Amino acid sequence: MLSARILALCMAALAGALMALQGSLNSVLGKAAGLWEATFFVQVTGTLLALASLPLVGEGSLQKIWSAPWYTWLGGILGVAIIFTVAASIPKVGAAAATTAIIAAQVLTACIIDHFGLFGLSPLPFTWWRWVGGALLAAGGWCMLRQ
Q: Residue 143 is part of which domain span?
């Protein structure tokens, strides 16, 4: 059980590293082609990769998407908003500062989702340990944003 948790944390850390890399690459592409054009291109290439991957690693059924709650379909819209806002913010404040703000907001939002068990997830109360972690995260963010 512990090894599965460690693997999941390593995958999450990889996702964080990939997000910082993606944001930086998208901001450069946005400077070259325009932010909306870069956002469109990133979404199209991601869609093509996902489509090509379905026969190889797909585990479910596209037909079952229609049985999911309507709000779960918002992921693509959120993806466009994420790509655009990250690509727009990095050239103005830098990759480290933008990523720090992203992580702080992401953790705060995740804590709210966990605490209230939103979207059918099991509730995970916001304990004082999480308050300590949030304070340390905020302190680390403050250090990262200092000039």
A: 95-147
